[in-house]
Amino acid sequence: MRRACHTWDLPHLVDDAVLTVSELATNAVEHARTDFVVTVSRQARRLHVAVQDGVPHFPHLRRPDPPGPAANPGGRGLMMVDRIAAAWGAMPTRVGKVVWATLT
After folding, report:
1. HSE value, Cβ hemisphere, 13 Å, CA-based, for 80
2. The domain that contains 52 carries what CATH number?
3. Contact, 49 vs 101, CB < 8 A?
């Protein structure tokens, strides 16, 4: 991500891009538990990140558990992506889904 941002003259997006791809890939590992493919592309001054996995269930924003001994420490990844991305969403594929985010 860092190299892509610098190569495409988008250094202002490095931190957000690294966080976004990390969160989307982590979700694929933790929830889909299938192989996944990360794709990064640029259109003018926008960076598009997509993670394809093998599970058709779409992600959704949820509020993290309140603090406490039984709390699940996860659940904040998509909330962060929602805050920093200009747009994000998911699309079905023949064998799963693609979760994508656009950064500007």
Report:
1. 16
2. 3.30.565.10
3. yes
